Amino acid sequence: MSGPMPKHVEKAQLRVFDEMFRSTITRAETLIRLREWSAQFDGSDTTGLADCVPGIDDAMRDHLATDWFGNPEQMFWIDWDGDGAVAARIVAAGAIETAEVSFGLATGEPLDAYIDALAESAMMTPEVCLKQLRSAALSTEINRAEKQLPLRRDLPVDTYWICEMPLFEAYVSWNDRQVTMHFTTPAVETPMYIVHPRKKLQEEAKTEWSAGMFAIQSAPPEFADETPVFTALMDAQDIPGKKKS
User: From CA 123, how far away is CA 155, in angstroms rounded?
Assistant: First the structure.
């Protein structure tokens, strides 16, 4: 079954945010890109935020630039009075806080003192690490790396999207094992998912897929005679690479 997105926690559609934080070096690259974007953003070119995501493909870049951060006359979000500039500022601020927390950095604290530690975590030489970071137009922050320090933290990041909420917001939480970022947004009228109630596919997902999500809810009417509790596999459409290679 498919249809407009209901109130639920979404994972696969936001794989792009997981990619932003998937490794130590991409978190560092993302942080510096977003800091530069935030420092220069004047409220006009909202679509430029999509270019801050390392390794993003053209289709997802266009989706973020147009639907999330653009089109002020025809917003992607239903019954929301904000505009693309507000959405862009919230996403950027949430992602910056997430990356800073993952490294144990104070607000705006530079990364140049941690190059050796970043390189070691990324299994790179410091020279290669600096080259990759500088490739993201980082001349304003990474100019030299004189005093080398161990990272205060190097926590993995997990991200989630909670749809059909009243406001566009970001929440960042952490413990000693990971950092979690939640985006909450108003609803959208787009068939963005497929609900799979079939047990065979659910078992395949549990044993073979590298990522996924189940929803456990009160059974809808068509299944109420079979079980009072309904488990469904929430599968975003057209998401490549879900299964392990």
Answer: 16
Task: Count other C-beta atoms under 10 Å from residue 142's C-beta.
Answer: 18
pLDDT digits (tens, 9 = 90+) for 33-57: 899 889 888 877 766 788 787 777 7
SS3 of 176, please?
Answer: coil
Order the strands of the 9-10 sheet from edge to edge. 9-10, 157-162, 179-184, 169-174
Same-domain status, 206 and 107 = no
* Contact assessment for residue 181 and residue 95, using Cβ atoms and an 8 Å cutoff: yes
Regarding whether 91 and 147 lie in a shared domain, the answer is: yes
Domain housing 197: 192-236
Alpha-carbon distance of 113 to 153, in angstroms, equals 14
CB burial class (10 A; 0-12, 13-18, 19+) of residue 231?
A: middle
Q: Token pair for residue 75?
A: 């917003």
Rounded Cα gap, residues 144 and 204, in angstroms: 49
Specify burial of residue 66 (Cβ count, 10 A radius: 0-12, 13-18, 19+). Answer: middle
Q: Tell me, what's the pLDDT at 104?
A: 96
Q: What gap in Å lies between CA 192 and CA 230, rounded to an integer?
A: 20
Q: How many domains does the chain have?
A: 2
pTM of the complete model:
0.79
Taking the C-alpha atoms of residue 84 and residue 106, their distance in angstroms, rounded to an integer, is 28
